[in-house]
Structure formats: structure tokens, C-alpha cells
Amino acid sequence: MKLTYYGHACFAVEAGGKNLLFDPFITPNELAKHVDINNIKADYILISHGHGDHVADCTAIAKNNDSTVIGAFEVAEWAGKQGITNTHPMNTGGKRAFDFGTVKCVNAIHSSVMPDGSYGANPMGFVITTNDKNFYYSGDTALTMDMQLIPRWAKLDFAVLCIGDNFTMGYEDAIEAARMVQCTKVIGVHYDTFGYIKIDRDKVKRAFTDAGIILYLPEIGESVDL
């Protein structure tokens, strides 16, 4: 399974012959200025919560690709008001089969509001199961004991976890999260974009290595096979 990192918490995964894009925040990100969103393919866009640094390019990319936007009910409602014609509303605890695999929405501890100030619903993470591989995207979250439930729903091949601290888990809590979800391959996201979430990459990598967990920190625009 190939994962392409687009900066901050935005990444794409090819699964079941479909292109899944998560939390598109690219054009406002100075670190991702070399990425042209017009070249991004997205059959589905999955939105973990409503903050601008997770939905900034949702409308443009969805309209470019006729994508289906998957998110909490209120997120899907907001997307519809932006002129996105294909949406699929979900909510925490819900599970749904799609043509690429299954999406289960899980708890995330954070805040959420849409760019227009409307209610952004409760934040979520996603457990994605496919015929190829299974993975967990934490979304923006604190470490939560709810993560211990995830191995009951899927045996994970990798996890995408926020590591930048301040607004979300830092790397220490992300290591604990990886242990809770019983996964030894982690892609770190939500770091370095702003001054508040700058990390010492070498220090963070050493901590994961010492914990027996493989940490991937791909460059923006880089793809990794998992």
C-alpha cells in the first residue's frame, strides 16, 4: 500500500483501486508550496474534524475530482454547502463499507469548528480496513484509553499518528498510542508546520527506535510503500 505525504496532517493512500485523501491542508502551508493540488487524485476525501488546517483544500480538490467527502454529519453538511455534491455523513462509533474497504469512525479528543464558524461536530479518527492492508489514522487527538479498543476491530499494518505536541499528542504519547493499538509501523503527522509544533526529528526518531517502533517521517510530496 502506497502512502503519499502532503504536509501537516494531509496524506493520500491508494486502497482497493481508489485514491483516499485525508485532511487536505496544502495551499496555505508554506512548507508544501511546491505541491500542486490540481495534480492530486482523490476518489474520497476523509475529514477528521473541522479546523482550517484540515479542510482548507477540501472544496477545490473535491470539485476537481468529483470526490466523495466522508466526515461527521456536520462536516458533510458543511461540505454540501460549499457545492460538493457527493458526501457521506458518519459519526463516532459508526462503520460503513465502501468500494475500497471499510471505514470505522473512532474517538478523538480535540476541538472542532468549520472555517465559517459553524459547528464542526466531535473530532474523529478512522480505522480503515481493506483487502490489502489495514491502518488507523488518529486525527488530531490526545492520548486516550479508547485506543485500546482498536485492535479488537482490526489488526493494523500501520498507524498515522500526530506527534507535534502542543495541540495534539507529542511523540511520547504517540509511542504509547502505538503500543495501545498494537502497531510497530507509524507515520508521523501534524508536526513542524507552525512554531508551536516544531520537533527535533533526530530525538523523536531515537525515541521510537528505542521503543521498538519504526517511525516514518516522509518529506512533503514523498511516497512510501507500507
UniProtKB/TrEMBL annotation:
GO molecular function annotations of the record: hydrolase activity
What's the name of the protein?
UPF0173 metal-dependent hydrolase SY85_05500
Tell me where in this chain the Metallo-beta-lactamase domain is found: 7-190
Give the UniProt keywords, A-Z: Hydrolase
> Entry's Pfam families?
Lactamase_B_3
**Could you name the domain of life of the organism this protein comes from?**
Bacteria
In the record, the note on similarity to other proteins reads: Belongs to the UPF0173 family.
- What residue stretch is flagged as signal peptide? none
- Upper lineage: Bacteria, Pseudomonadati, Bacteroidota, Chitinophagia, Chitinophagales
